[in-house]
Fold:
Amino acid sequence: MKRAIITGITGQDGSYLADLLLAKGYKVYGMVRRSSTENFERIEHLRGKISIVQADLLDQLSIIELMEEVEPHEVYNLAAQSFVPTSWTQPTLTGEFTGLGVTKMLEAIKLVNRKIKFYQASSSEMFGKVRETPQNELTPFYPRSPYGVAKVYGHFITVNYRESYDMFAVSGILFNHESPRRGLEFVTRKITDGVARIALGVAKDIRLGNLHAKRDWGFAGDYVEAMWMMLQHKPAEDFVIATGESHTVKEFARLAFEHVGLNWRKYVKVDEKLYRPAEVTQLRGNPAKARRILRWRPRVDLAGLVRMMVEADIVRIQEQLSKR
Structure:
């Protein structure tokens, strides 16, 4: 039986990846911090199916001990301070977790067993002020936030360990991927949660920032499959994972409101306080390499994703209201 460690197990991607690996017969270990105040809600349905183990991305020795104890075949590093606005208020912490934490994971693998396969969660935010559209594996990075900068460090340190120590270490440059398990602080979930509340009569409007920002949005459940595929493919290579389409925040909001029969213009309020200090205006990935080599394709389109998220939020809020 293959063993895999997932850091960031309590996040959106970690929970979907755990579902996938369990379905493929893996023994799954989810790494959490000792003093963690993490919300385990996303993996509640996995209780008893996965093993929760303790280690800290900032503590090198704890990671080494974890690798020795579990003896994993694969490690998926999904842990990070991943909310871009927070990276402006906590830039040093973001750099430590999202950048240096990657080095500590790679160093632990190098010291314990170089045959362990390593997946690093890179991000489309690394492209930032884009040099070309769509963005592919060779597009230069120009990050526009402390989060994006830290992700670039994590990406290139992964490349360096792969090339310097003959390790199987890859990065997936994933464009925005959403789901009903997305955090409420992210704009897509903020929209679908707000639409559900308005439809159920418990909210009157949604406050959003830049409605014209364009993103390439896919379904997280599709994207974690690409992570697994990357670790099964030889040689170790980096891949852009995206839909190849970009849509504005306004389009996402319109689709969400249309699903419940409402006109978005009546309920969306633009709040300039929600604009980023340095805006990333357009991201659109070119997944041609992943399609050609991994045979990966997204199954859920934007309309299907929006429907899925709105419906899940309506059910969740109805359940909350029924308990009052």
Remarks:
- The first strand starts at residue 3 and ends at 7.
- The chain has two domains: 3-177+217-241, 183-216+245-283+300-322.
- Residues 117 and 232 are 9 Å apart (CA to CA).
- The chain has a mean pLDDT of 93.
